[in-house]
Amino acid sequence: MQIFIPLLIGIGLIYYQYSSFSEEQIKRIKVYFKSADYFYVLLSVIISLFGYWSRSYRWKYSLQHLGYEPKFHNSFFAVSISYLINLTIPRSGEVTRAIILKKYEGIPFDKGFGTIVAERVIDFLIFLLFVITAFLLQFDKINHFIFSNISPNRIIFITIIGFISFFAFLLIWKWAKWPIILKIKSKFIGLIEGMTSVLKMKNKWKYLFHSFFIWFCYLLMFYVCIFSIPETASISFDVVIMGFIFGSLAVGFTNGGIGAFPISIAKVLLLYGIAEDAGTALGWIIWTSQTLLTIILGLFSYLFLNIFNKN
């Protein structure tokens, strides 16, 4: 069910989007694909490879902090395979990474997985910086969009409900002894410990450099692709950040962002005057190229993992 529900949602989104298009719009989307400048798409894929490399290289610093020295190729293969697995069940690849490291490097699963949790905390904080930056750069646009689509009374109602829910959560978090709350607390404590472990490691500045470099690669990968279509080539960098944020959120919504990624890119760019068919084509070009890279790299890594560790 964890595989099929997100997949069905993605297929449903594809059906919903294309059923709303006219025949003329669908023809234009096909033209965008045929006439796209795939030099920029290839450049985007190459930049993504640097992101793979950096994520694999960053991992060694947290493992060194625990006293382990894994081979780089095993880390790279594990990361590549984890991206492939995430196309089936979102976030299941993290578990796979730790299992691979245990099998081929003898690193205990709980310790390997703990370093991955720490990575996710850092990644989340960096992504939050992107969100804050985008909000500040596009405050007027976001403010106008909210107040033009949602009535003031509804905003007030949502705000009141939000405050009530927040304080109710604090009370439950503080006093409740329910098993599920206790379990969430233990997970949260693990996240905090994972995050603080980064601050204690010897090479923390190198670790943080690679953390920012990874996200720089993600953003640059997205950015260069806008030049593959003339209609999107002139959009400003702050708009690119908005598209990047919503595209990143969409990736976790369905299996690898299928359906959700293109539609989110199209809707964001539509706010800035880019025709929905052009935004949709761009979304599918980015999603298809990155998904193909994930599949090819993941399959080759699975093959080479056994070859490189034959002895």
TrEMBL record:
Keywords from the UniProt entry: Cell membrane, Membrane, Transmembrane, Transmembrane helix
Q: Which InterPro entries does this entry report, sorted A to Z?
A: L-PG_synthase/AglD (IPR022791)
Its predominant location is membrane
Q: Does the keyword Membrane apply?
A: yes
Query: Which domain of life does the protein's organism represent?
Result: Bacteria
| Keyword Transport listed | no
Q: How does it sit in the membrane?
A: Multi-pass membrane protein
Cellular compartments annotated:
Cell membrane
Q: Where are the transmembrane segments?
A: 38-54, 121-139, 155-176, 207-229, 235-253, 281-305
> Which PANTHER family does the UniProt entry name for this protein?
UPF0104 MEMBRANE PROTEIN MJ1595
Q: Which NCBIfam families match?
A: flippase-like domain
Stated name of the protein: Flippase-like domain-containing protein
